[in-house]
Amino acid sequence: MPDKKTIKAIKKTSKKKFDLQVPKGMRDVFAEGVLRKEKLYKVGRDIFEFYGFEQIETPILEKEELFVRSVGSETDIVQKEMYAIKGGGSNKLVLRPEMTASVMRSYLENGMRKLPQPRRLYYRGPMFRKERPQAGRFRQFDQIGVEIVGGESDPIYDAQVILIFYKMLESLKLENIVVGVNSIGSDSDRQNYKKKLVDHYKKNEKKICPDCKRRLKTNPLRVLDCKVKECQPIKDDAPIILDNLTSVTKAHFKEVLEYLEELNVPYTLTPHLVRGLDYYSRTVFEIYQLGEESEPGLTLVAGGRYDYLANVLGSKGVSGIGAAMGVDRVIEAVLEKDVNFGLPRKKDLAFLVHVGQLAKKKSMGLLEELRGANINIVSNLGKTSLSSQLEKANKVGASIAIILGQKEVYEDNVILRNMKTGTQEDVPRNKLIKQLKKRLK
Which of 3-17, 152-166, 334-348, 388-402 has the lowest mean pLDDT? Predict the structure, then answer.
């Protein structure tokens, strides 16, 4: 509840015009949009559960420290993009910007180590990042994702997570889907690589953007995330981390690629792909759709391995691999091919019209009787005039109006009106359902 000072300020300004617009970068989702999301969730749920994943839900609010430790204190997410909640006390609370850290927190907190390993978990829900709104990028956005946590760091799990999302996109009839994949090695691999990367960028320090200069001091790998035009030539000539892996991490990555080839999943090596989160190690990947001139479009799915995440959260090491899909982006991509995605096939609709107080009372029971018989029906119980109800029936596209007046109540029948032709006929109540099923397709 707002404090007294806030309430007083609101009262003071209540006479002023209130800006009713939704917060920047957020939006309302209406009937068709909700149906499309639910369809995508069902596609995801069916494939996830086929592969043995169980659903998990975590709070939208988490302690800020969870993401500072896991995502990284110098990442854009922590530095610029998290929404903090007022009044969180000593433990500052934030709206979750991603789910992997939350899933790992839940795994550790709830003693999932004691259960059979690995745990296969999937999720759906909204995430929040204070990014610059643009096409395919919102400040509140939905994701569906999977995490395989615990057990061995087996490359087969990396390949399976990639396969699951590749097959999901394929089932949605999306074309020109490409998996960009890289390995960023172990902690020691990255330490050695960072030295070479810093040396390379320092030689070109006058040519790089302010963000890259800052990242070079705080978190050098993040310079490879830079999209600023003048930084691209320096990035293109930068050392490649694949050339700096130990034999163990090279073998792990080689096995991942062999599994992908065996599974006929097309991939491309993306040597400067590092992902924007600090908890990743070894395999990282993105799945995107090729755009015009075969250029990569927006990322649809992203993920990777995070075998050190539990350690930075203060626990013993736990292996993990996961990925998340951007729901809004995937739906936009699907709609370019199938404008009816997620929408049910339109059925003929009946509209119940009541005339008079007695008919109005009886209409509630009739409505429930028809719903129980799976008749596709709507009504507008607040309207009392015949003409206004018939007008509403036309607007909603009803093919039949069921008219119930005082006379019909006494005679135990109804009038069926064909909304296209205007023809009407009396039908006994005990034959109404049979007649409607015959006429409604």
Answer: 3-17
| DSSP code of residue 378 | E
CA atoms within 13 A on the CB side of 345: 2
Give the annotated binding-site residues. Answer: 98-100, 129, 143, 147, 275, 279-280
DSSP count for the chain of H helices, then E strands: 16, 16
What CATH number labels 350-433? 3.40.50.800
- The pLDDT of residue 10: 61
Compute the mean pLDDT over every residue in the chain, rounded to the nearest whole number: 88
Taking CA atoms, 383 is separated from 228, 386, 426, in Å, by 59, 8, 23
What's the average model confidence in pLDDT over 345-359?
85
Residues 6+ apart with CB under 8 A from 192: 244
Paired residues of 141 in beta bridges: 127
Q: In which element (H, E) is residue 149 found?
A: strand 140-149
Show Cβ contacts of residue 249 under 8 Å, excluding neighbours closer than 6 positions: 183, 185, 186, 189, 282
Which CATH topology does 24-186+246-335 take?
BirA Bifunctional Protein; domain 2 (3.30.930)
Nearest to 323 by CA among 187, 123, 171: 123
* Alpha-helical segments (H) within 92-231: 100-109, 155-171, 187-203, 210-218
**Which candidate, 81, 42, 50, places its Cα nearest to that of 64?**
81
What percent of the chain is predicted at pLDDT more than 70? 94
More confident residue, 401 or 123: 123
Bind-site residues for L-histidine: 98-100, 129, 143, 147, 275, 279-280
Residue in 296, 259, 414 with CA at minimum distance from that of residue 352: 414
Residues 6+ apart with CB under 8 A from 67: 77, 78, 82, 94, 96, 97, 98, 101
Domain parsing of the chain, residue ranges = 24-186+246-335, 350-433
Residue 384 clears pLDDT 80, i.e. is over it = no
371-374 long-range Cβ contacts below 8 angstroms, 24+ apart: 373/433, 373/436, 373/437
- Give the pLDDT confidence score for residue 73 in this predicted structure: 77
Who wins on pLDDT, 17 or 194? 194
Considering only residues 131 and 209, tell me which one the structure prediction assigns the higher pLDDT: 209
Beta-bridged to residue 154, according to DSSP, are none
Give the whole-angstrom CA distance, residue 377 versus residue 397: 11
Quick one: CA torsion of 38, 40, 46, 49, rounded to 10 degrees?
-90
